[in-house]
């Protein structure tokens, strides 16, 4: 009897299946909620930067009104964007509006501020800071479970 060299189709299928299972298990699994929250933060920061850029050397006035679970953008008192969040996502800020009336050449609003975006499902917190003078927008994660930060967020949640 002659020995055949090579692999059977069944052996190849089993090998590819095992490699696929190992690959699937080893890839990081991201939570959908976390990705949705990150997307929401990115969109809000993008809108802030867009308004800042459009207000540079412009006679148009821009206002961003923030509510607990939505925000609206106005140009010369006419609404140009309205964004509502899914349940569980919140904007928390002591100031409810950002005004771009008398902006500098840099497109900075008249004052700096911090805005918190909160995901109550995953208990994730992002702090978005608009720097005074430059209008630069920075953000970073905060530790929601930190004792002092939890008090601040709970206060904002009760207030709204």
UniProtKB/TrEMBL annotation:
Domain of life of the native organism: Bacteria
Keywords associated with the record: Membrane, Transmembrane, Transmembrane helix
Segments passing through the bilayer: 6-25
This protein's name: Prepilin-type N-terminal cleavage/methylation domain-containing protein
Organism name: Peptostreptococcus russellii
Origin organism lineage: Bacteria, Bacillati, Bacillota, Clostridia, Peptostreptococcales
């Amino acid at each position: 009897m002659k020995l055949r060299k090579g692999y059977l189709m069944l052996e190849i299928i089993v090998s590819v299946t095992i490699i696929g299972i190992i690959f699937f298990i080893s890839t990081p699994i991201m939570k959908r909620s976390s990705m949705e929250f990150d997307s929401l933060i990115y969109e809000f920061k993008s809108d802030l930067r867009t308004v800042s850029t459009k207000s540079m050397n412009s006679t148009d006035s821009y206002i961003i009104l923030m509510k607990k679970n939505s925000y609206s953008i106005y140009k010369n008192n006419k609404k140009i964007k309205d964004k509502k969040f899914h349940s569980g996502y919140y904007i928390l800020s002591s100031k409810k509006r950002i005004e771009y009336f008398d902006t500098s050449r840099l497109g900075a609003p008249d004052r700096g501020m911090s805005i918190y975006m909160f995901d109550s499902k995953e208990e994730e917190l992002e702090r978005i800071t608009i720097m005074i003078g430059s209008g630069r927008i920075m953000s970073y994660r905060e530790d929601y479970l930190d004792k002092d930060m939890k008090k601040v967020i709970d206060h904002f949640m009760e207030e709204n």
